[in-house]
Known about the structure:
Layout: H1 10-21, E1 34-39, E2 44-48, H2 61-71, E3 77-83, H3 94-104, E4 109-112, E5 115-118, H4 119-122
Parallel strand pairs: 3-4
Antiparallel strand pairs: 1-2, 1-3, 4-5
Amino acid sequence: MTADAAPVDWDALREAARDAMSRAYAPYSGYPVGVAALVDDGRMITGCNVENASYGIGLCAECGLVSQLAATGGGRLTHFTCVDGAGAVLVPCGRCRQLLYEFGGPGLVLETPEGLRTLDEMLPQAFGPQNLG
Length: 133
């Protein structure tokens, strides 16, 4: 993992994710998820999952986070955490790791139940813009 320029307040980031999780719309699965991330310009952004009756086209919390990133000026994600309905830290699924790779790159630092990991450690040999001709 790369060294951080400034210390990250993981407790505050996790609390923002828990707050976002409290706003999740998960009436079908009963599995609310919240996420929070820091952006390279110092902003903190959040997201929560939003389900709908057709199940398969629900939005992951990471989708909401990336949408907020774009809507508030873009930038690169630098630090990320994800929590479940009980507020416990969990890791994003493979699809969401790919989404995070697009907007944070291999150096994005993720909080996991086992500690901090870079996205490169969580998604080795990722496919990204560099692979397109």
